[in-house]
């Protein structure tokens, strides 16, 4: 069977780590390295370097600006992103006198009954440091172990797999977990010297073999983890320079860096748990205070001064280090727009990333000289630079509207078995976005949950149809795309081209092919899900949300699509505005139209005879629209679409916005002119589409969309973002005319399911085939995008909205999928704003 066409490669995010035995601060490494050489440096260059090594300071962190939402009724604000301070708990092994006691004390405090219940249930709230003690709760394949016992006799399906309960005998006992956790802590804090230093993650076979051949004491290889690491205690310290020169080219690191890494040193910092709940931090502080009081009491009873000096607190090695974390009170609300900060406090996606320069503020610094031991020397040169807090950003989003919109959308995506969906709600008179929703959702506080996988069952036939792709880890270029059996069986490889076989042989000499292979199950010609192998026959894993890290993408601006029939009102508005047609001009719809070598057909191959332009929108007649675009002409239609904002970015305050695609009019064929009339052959973003529809709602003005209401600067001044008119794209009268036609579309046409009793709603449905690589359209289940664009109330629209559902699988028409969703959104908004029915 023929292979699916190639698809653009995606970056693979994969990082596996061995146990991190200990971490030292970089500053400490710099201070201790080459201390003797630093003392005898001579010359201007060396003196400058020495001064920089001795000039020390304390960083004063800036407070990151908050991100707020604004209530569109009351103008009150609510927090979408703020800051919280949570403690990092660590232990200093060098001053730990009773490791077992310290470990047991910490395990008892950290592993509460509530946390045990969270971890036992496999919940995302379980601290990362404890997950390894609850492997059974986080292993989605564990229930399938019962298959081998013969308990399940019926044919397994992906549905009943997910219903299987975990065996009760695998439920962790809290006392046993505390004991194991304590032993783990004890083991790590009992070592006072650094014994593990990772040198290279993701090592190739060539690198690992070469390192083995060198046979350097203290340097080891983990073939399973693809890791080269060292134990400085076992490395000959007198030969560090020679060793560093030998292995530097091999692991592609500077010898100076390697030499610093291999130096023996005390272990002063063993992290135990991060992001401690405030209640637990308080318990630890109280426990330390209690231990200190006990030590002081013992000191008071000591028989001599020397004996008293030997008495120290049993918990003196425990320390809490405050860390600043980003916190999102609502988690999923507008997460695609807000983005998140990762564990390294780096902004990822959305507002957090694009406005990071103003959100992060500026760090402060207390500058001073330090002696060779790292102690502070107070001098007249000491300077204090105050930190400058970040600025607060107030979004145009109404939290209540955003939350309800996300609920409606998530429910619809599940109901129609779709891959994803988007809803945008805009104030058509200002361009302010009231909501911008994506589904599937993700939680900004637990952004890693997008990687969660669930088991599925594949038949033998389905397994043979699995397609694999292999990318070179360093260049990220695709080496192979083939059926699984053609890559992993000797007989199958004979079917591959000689060039592909040579590429596979070359990459196998460097890597384990199974480690760098991606597996895909195709649901259509260009519609696929990534799947993952397991050790169980016929059992595979897939992302629970179907799209994995794709959930981070804000598809309202970062993805283009062919809009289909929701484009028809804009085409008709252009024609009316330029005097090419009037609403009651007629068209004789007798059957398909032949254009170039193509046939233009109506949906379901229905034809309506003599129709008006109003009927053309009501019944969504493709042939009628083709006649209209023919009257407009290529050049005029191209320029008019550009005026509506298509083919260029809107300039909204979001990163990676796509401009869409409208080919230059000189390259248009007659078929292109014909299909553009009903939204095929041109690509847009959902944001461009709702912006264009808003121009029909507000009297013909194209507004620049915005999600920023105002920016509050550190000095208290407020920068208000004012509405911006980009252009008057059609006359006011034309806008009123097309709005009336769209009302008739909802009252009398295919858009009836969007109707809310008592209200006059303007709207148009859309159904478009998904264009695959090479311009060929997909067919079959899940090959369509359904949409609805509309606004209401008609007399003075309070909102315009676009509904878009990607690849629904049980219904494929916009009238059946997207129109009812618009009705749900509109019903909520009418009630929320207290808008009376039009017929009162």
How do the strands and helices of this protein lay out in sequence?
Blueprint lengths: L25 H7 L2 H5 L4 H11 E6 L6 E4 L6 E15 L7 H12 L2 H8 L14 H4 L19 H5 L11 H16 L7 E5 L3 H10 L4 E4 L4 E4 L9 H12 L3 H8 L7 E7 L1 H23 L4 H6 L7 E10 L7 H4 L1 E2 L5 E2 L1 H5 L1 H4 L4 E7 L5 E2 L5 E3 L6 E4 L3 H17 L4 E7 L6 E7 L13 E5 L2 H5 L2 E5 L6 E6 H5 L1 H4 L4 H11 L8 E6 L5 E6 L5 E5 L11 H4 L9 H10 L8 E4 L3 E3 L2 E3 L8 E4 H6 L3 H11 L1 H10 L26 H7 L9 H12 L3 E3 L4 E5 L5 E3 L4 E4 L3 H17 L13 E8 L14 E9 L6 E8 L7 H20 L7
Helix pairs in contact: 4-8, 10-11, 17-30, 23-25, 23-29, 25-27
Polypeptide structure, described:
It is a single chain. Helices cover 33% and strands 21% of the residues. Among the domains are: 195-261, no CATH class; 556-702 and 726-809, DD-peptidase/beta-lactamase superfamily (Beta-lactamase), CATH 3.40.710.10. Helix 4 (99-110) crosses helix 8 (174-189) and helix 23 (568-577) runs parallel beside helix 25 (622-632). The strands form nine sheets. Strands 2, 3, 7, 8, 14, 28 and 29 form a seven-stranded mixed β-sheet that branches. It has 30 helices and 33 strands. The model is unreliable at 1-56, 148-155 and 370-376 (pLDDT under 50). With 840 residues, it is an alpha+beta fold. Strand 28 (708-712) and strand 29 (718-720) form a beta hairpin. The chain is globular and about 110 Å long. The longest helix has 23 residues, at 278-300.
